[in-house]
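In the design runs reported in the main text, the only information available to the sequence generator was the tokenized backbone. The following block is the verbatim input for one such run; it is reproduced so that readers can re-run the procedure and compare outputs position by position.
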């Protein structure tokens, strides 16, 4: 390893993370032959194969897995050092890696804008995915902070609630139940229902409530995004349960049904593995988000209140 360079390790880390020389080349703005050459030189320096190809797929060898873990530590330490030096100079600088569940995309970008203006030296990497994949990313320690509405049950994590996230019953704006109040939850059994995909935190919360009260809904559609569900509702294909935040900017096509035991009260949480030392940049965003969401709640109090009110016609 004496002749291995930092550039070679960077190329290897990208190739190992993507399991692809082609995607590593695209990420690093290199040609694929250049990536292959760098990996070949690094392999020679290590003295053991780092990758093996089975069919068309690329896999890490045992030596490759050990080197991949070592590279992650090296680059993490370098990043922490650069952030520390910048902080000593009175500047916030570095990369913030965020992973958020899909519903959070309705408000997190609005909070990232002012943060980036306040700290122009901080670059943001934002991953938007579902609850199940968030857990996988957390297990691999791929990000600095995770924004989610359901705390992992089988993982040791540190979490902080920062914003309410009630789930409400959406229906088309001309739905017959929109004229009624205090609707028994059992009446949802008679409605065609649109459900989020398996692995969704929203789906888990809804199914838990339905099981508690013995409600068996007719699932007509399973869709993987809130926007797709909203379009299906607007098209008259059924009703669904979604986060209030998906409706803040679009109320014309929907009614909110006054159903017993709704809204389902939940919170948004900032989460990270227990024992993880937040970087200076991550801690800066952590503190910023706690302060910023207090302002958001106050500024949008009227909008939030009107959004939560069931629609009666």
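Verbatim output:
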């Amino acid at each position: 390893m004496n002749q291995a360079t930092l550039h070679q390790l960077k190329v290897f880390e990208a190739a190992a993370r993507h399991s692809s020389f082609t995607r590593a080349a695209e990420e690093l703005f290199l040609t694929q032959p250049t990536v292959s050459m760098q990996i070949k030189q690094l392999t020679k320096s290590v003295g053991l194969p780092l990758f093996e190809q089975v069919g068309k797929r690329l896999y890490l060898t045992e030596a490759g897995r050990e080197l991949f873990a070592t590279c992650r530590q090296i680059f993490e330490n370098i990043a922490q050092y650069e952030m520390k030096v910048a902080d000593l100079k009175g500047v916030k600088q570095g990369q913030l890696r965020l992973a958020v569940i899909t519903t959070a995309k309705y408000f997190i970008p609005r909070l990232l804008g002012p943060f980036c203006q306040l700290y122009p030296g901080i670059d943001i990497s934002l991953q938007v995915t579902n609850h199940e994949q968030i857990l996988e990313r957390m297990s691999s320690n791929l990000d600095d902070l995770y924004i989610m509405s359901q705390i992992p049950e089988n993982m040791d994590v540190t979490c902080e609630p920062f914003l309410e996230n009630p789930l409400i019953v959406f229906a088309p704006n001309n739905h017959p139940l929109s004229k009624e109040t205090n609707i028994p939850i059992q009446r949802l059994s008679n409605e065609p229902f649109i459900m989020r995909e398996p692995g969704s935190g929203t789906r888990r919360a809804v199914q838990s409530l339905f099981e508690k009260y013995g409600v068996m809904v007719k699932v007509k559609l399973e869709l993987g995004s809130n926007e797709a569900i909203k379009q299906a509702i607007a098209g008259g294909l059924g009703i669904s349960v979604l986060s209030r935040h998906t409706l803040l900017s679009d109320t014309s096509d929907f009614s909110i049904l006054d159903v017993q035991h709704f809204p389902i009260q939940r919170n948004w949480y900032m989460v990270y593995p227990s024992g993880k030392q937040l970087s200076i940049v991550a801690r800066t965003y952590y503190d910023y988000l706690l302060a910023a969401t207090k302002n958001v709640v106050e500024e949008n109090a009227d909008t939030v209140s009107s959004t939560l009110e069931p629609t009666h016609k």
